[in-house]
């Protein structure tokens, strides 16, 4: 299964978890042997859904003081860890929205890594993002942050929260 297959597929069992601060427990987003360490200024929630028998998770991360947003899509492997396929991001220190993504099949990806040589940045690091492609929202707005992730990955049509 590739990212385009996940985006195009019908999703079921969609759940938006509660917002929390700091470290993301391994049970919520198992990308490594330990919990995913975020600073205390970061707040996050996890969106879970299924495509047939495959469990997928999206970690939505906000840091209002740093004006940082991430929506990280992963697919659960048979060993109970995530394979990361895409991360939509905004950082005030970089020119606009971008994503790090792979077109590789999820079965070929290493588990436990957010980045690797299989990930490509779009647009490239020296390219200017298309203005107006992504909606503007306050990085601190939790509801709009979740809606952005749901829209980007085509998780659901219409409001979930």
Q: Give the overall pLDDT as a whole number.
A: 83
Uncertain regions spanning at least 5 consecutive residues: none
Number of domain units: 1
- Main beta sheet, described? 8 strands, antiparallel
How does the helix and strand content classify structurally?
Answer: mainly beta
Total DSSP helices:
2
Oligomer kind: single chain
Strand content: 25-35%
Report the end-to-end length measured between terminal Cα atoms: 28 Å
Please give the radius of gyration in angstroms: 15 Å
Shape: globular
**Strands, count:** 8
Helix content: 10-25%
Order of helices and strands: HEEEEEEEEH
What does this structure look like?
- With 161 residues, this protein is mainly beta.
- The chain has one domain.
- 11% of the residues lie in helices and 32% in strands.
- The chain has two helices and eight strands.
- Strands 1, 2, 3, 4, 5, 6, 7 and 8 form an eight-stranded antiparallel β-sheet that branches.
């Amino acid at each position: 299964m590739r990212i385009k297959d996940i985006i195009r597929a019908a999703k079921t069992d969609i759940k938006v978890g509660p917002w929390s601060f700091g470290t993301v427990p391994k049970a919520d987003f198992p990308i490594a042997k330990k919990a995913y360490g975020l600073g205390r200024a970061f707040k996050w929630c996890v969106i879970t859904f299924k495509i047939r028998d495959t469990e997928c998770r999206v970690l939505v991360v906000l840091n209002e003081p740093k004006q940082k947003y991430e929506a990280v899509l992963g697919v659960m492997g048979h060993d109970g860890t995530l394979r990361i396929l895409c991360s939509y991001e905004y950082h005030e220190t970089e020119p606009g929205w971008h994503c790090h993504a792979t077109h590789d099949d999820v079965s070929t990806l290493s588990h436990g890594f957010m980045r690797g040589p299989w990930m490509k940045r779009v647009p490239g690091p020296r390219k200017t993002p298309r203005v107006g492609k992504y909606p503007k929202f306050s990085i601190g707005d939790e509801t709009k942050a979740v809606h952005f992730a749901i829209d980007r990955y085509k998780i659901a049509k219409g409001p979930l929260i």
